[in-house]
Amino acid sequence: MNAKKGFNYGKLLPYIVAVAVFALITIVYFYPVFQGKKLYGGDIVQFKAMAKEITDYRNKTGNEPLWTNNMFSGMPAYQISMEYDKNLMTYIHAFIRMGNYLPIGMVLLYFLGFYFLLQVLGLNKWLSIAGAIGFAFSSYFFVILVAGHTSKAFAIGYMAPVIAGVILTYRGKYLAGGLITTFFLALEIVSGHPQITYYLMIMILVYGLMELIKHFREKNLAPFFKASAVLIGAAILAILTHSASLWNTYEYSKYSIRGKTELSTEKENRTSGLDKDYAVDWSYGVDETMTLLIPGFFGGSSNSSLSKNSETYKALIENKVPKADAERFLKGFPLYWGEQKFTSGPVYAGAIILFLFVFSLFYLKGPLKWWGITVTVLSILLSWGKHFMPLTNFFMEYVPLYNKFRAVSMTLVIAEFSIPLLGFIALDQLLKDGKKEVIFKYLKLSLYIVGGILLLFIALAGSLYSFSGPGDAALGLPDWVWAAVRADRLSMFRTDAIRSLIFVLLAFGLLWFYLKGKLKLSYVLIILPVLILIDMWPVNKRFISNDDFARKNQVETPYQASKADLEILKDKDPNYRVYNFNEAFDQSARTSYFHKNIGGYHGAKLRRYQELIDVPLINERRMIIESINDKKIPLEQALQRSAAFNMLNTRYFIINESSQPLQNPFACGNAWFVRDYKFVNNADEELAAIEGLNPDSTAIIDNRFGSFVSGFTVPNTPKGTIALTNYAPNYLVYEYSASQDEMAVFSEVYYDKGWKAFIDGKPAPHFRADFILRAMIVPAGDHKIEFKFEPRSFYKGQNVSLAASLLVILLTLGALGYYAYTKRLSDEGAK
């Protein structure tokens, strides 16, 4: 190199072009962001409600409340909205998030992370641009954006650089590989989606197994164990950076629905984590796996739109439906007819990508191929869930932590990662190997397989499927509507199969002409990413388009108070609860935006609270509805018998949003003294005792808490008085007056991993009563009771996070400095 010329900036050109291409694609796709709009999706709106009390408290005080009472009568804030300010990696993650340009930050991470992995693997720099586009535009990765699954999106984006670090380490680059793994695994954990991180760990473990087999065959195990030791150290350091969050999550998981139940019912359905039927609720259908190749195989989304050219629209007009009504009917129609309850869109990996993947199965050699095949097949089989229970049961019973996660269809993110990875590794090898006869053979074989499958479905679609879904009947539409809808579903199926076949033929033709010497490599490298974009861009636009963006104020303030809400808000008591009969207990957080909600929306609520919902609360809800509709039971009597609602201090019921709320005169209040208590032997008896209980006068106590009431006798004097005098989500103050020792029950969820009780500033024991509430024995006299939420896991974990994250950043900066210094010495030595 000529000393006067200095650094060769020409080497940077492919990377500059790659970043520019990725940025341009992302900006064009998400240009509404630059108009001040934000994505407006279901879970985004739900999150605003879930986190309302948390964010209000944070904005007011500058501190984290760690607990919220606005959902499910109270739960830790760990899995809702938390800021771990002592973990320095959160600031790096915040920079990558790009704040106001959130979807752009996520998709850029998809692009750049996968591009980085392909470069680590040594692929052609220009071809890697096409590979990154093929990965990033997998439809599921865009579907989750509009759903508001931001943590999941970032966790997916960080997967590729973590895998890159692992591969480098096993290839003997211990320092670089270890640091890259540590840095990006720390960011992976910071993103806050343990389920995706778990799937990443499965991929890494399988890769490690393949490396072990390889080194064992070579009789050279030392490098394997050295690399594995480096990676274990990297993982430990990455985990320590997020000690507070992981510690909180681990501690809370034992008490959430991800932990083991204490009930003895439904034993065949129970695991040490989620119940099986709940875990497999969202299982991908076996046939539905074909959406990887044909996006409209099962109709697409549960909330699709039909055009005026559709058979459904024609049928509506022919049957004299007014045009305005017909057009409204076409919007948000459930074209999806698969077995999932609902879906926002299919998992479409791209026709060209699938074609390249099939080619890789024949053409690639070595451990990387078998790793990719293994994780692809495993992810597909696991995604079938209830449709392939032998494997699902095995994993739920014997594979650690697997039963902590639901929505098994999510395992397909592994296939969405490995399919383009193998496909582009094979394509890169093809471009390097030239015109070998075997390439032509395998290329034709891949076309016959993929093209043959597509031709089969094009020809026989109408006879293979009925195009009727299990949820169709519930809509109550006439047969002539369904006949038209089925015709539209068939048309979508066949049209998408044809378009996939066209793209497969175009990709085959492109490579064939190149191998025959009729097309330059530069043209292939330009045309291929364009074809991939033309294929995948329109499919993704079906599920996330400009219509999914709304004005910022609509997203930031998604709910408007109803007449019932406004009436309830006139009550200035800071702590009472509301139940909205228009919402299922666990399917909507809207009420949480305005009130302290009996219900909510969260996948990790406390298990005991879910069990309270499943039996007494659902039964009491039914009884109140019957008393209103049928009047067989007087409403006053139904409310009085609603022990669970009453002990949870449900002061208001919303029956009709536009009407006055129903006030419950039997709500027990924030706290009360009882005149009797009964011991039970186990959780089954404790839950059963709620039915028919008068919680205002009697407490139900599990025998294991017997020591807390030892020596206490029920007073025979009139009850004392107790009242809540100060409220914050993590700090409650009560003042009481009693002539004798009393048993106080508090309408607050019992969670002893953080809640501490004090009487006149001194620590005091409290215990669980009535299956879910807190109780304590209080001394006679006039006293002050305080409840403070101070989980040790958060405060201790924060300090560990600070030290570990600082170490990761210093090591990374040190490694970069060392690399720059050695590179300079190398350049000077070459002069």
DSSP E strands, number: 21
Termini separation: 7 Å
Q: Helical residue percent?
A: 40-55%
Largest sheet entry: 5 strands, antiparallel
Radius of gyration, Cα only, in angstroms? 30 Å
Describe the strand arrangement of the main beta sheet, using strand numbers: 14-15-21-17-18
Question: What is the structural class?
Answer: alpha+beta
Strand content: 5-15%
Mean pLDDT, rounded to whole units? 92
Instruction: Tell the overall outline.
Output: globular
The low-pLDDT segments are: none
Description:
The protein is α+β, with helices and mostly antiparallel strands and 831 residues long. Among the domains are: 563-663, no CATH class; 671-790, no CATH class. The strands form seven sheets. The chain has a five-stranded antiparallel sheet with strand order 14-15-21-17-18, with no helix packed on it. A four-stranded mixed sheet has the order 8-7-9-10. α8 packs antiparallel against α9. The longest helix is centred in the C-terminal third of the chain and has 39 residues, at 792-830.
Task: Provide a short characterization of the protein structure.
This protein has 29 helices and 21 strands. It is α+β, with helices and mostly antiparallel strands.
Question: Can you tag this structure with a few keywords?
Answer:
831 residues, alpha+beta, 5-stranded antiparallel beta sheet, 4-stranded mixed beta sheet, 29 helices, 21 strands, 52% helix, 11% strand, globular
List the helices and strands and how they pair.
Layout: H1 13-29, E1 37-39, H2 42-50, H3 52-61, E2 67-68, E3 75-76, H4 89-97, H5 102-120, H6 127-136, H7 139-147, H8 150-170, H9 174-190, H10 194-217, H11 222-241, H12 243-253, H13 276-279, E4 304-305, H14 311-318, H15 323-330, E5 331-333, H16 351-363, H17 367-383, H18 389-398, H19 412-433, H20 437-464, H21 479-515, H22 521-541, E6 549-551, H23 552-556, H24 563-569, E7 577-580, E8 596-597, H25 607-629, H26 635-640, H27 643-647, E9 650-654, E10 662-663, E11 671-673, E12 676-680, H28 683-688, E13 698-702, E14 721-728, E15 731-738, E16 742-749, E17 755-759, E18 762-764, E19 767-769, E20 773-778, E21 781-789, H29 792-830
Parallel strand pairs: 7-8, 7-9, 12-13
Antiparallel strand pairs: 1-6, 2-3, 4-5, 9-10, 11-16, 14-15, 15-21, 16-20, 17-18, 17-21, 19-20
Helix pairs in contact: 1-5, 5-6, 5-8, 6-19, 6-22, 7-8, 8-9, 8-10, 9-11, 9-29, 10-11, 10-17, 11-29, 12-29, 14-15, 14-21, 16-19, 16-20, 17-19, 20-21, 21-22
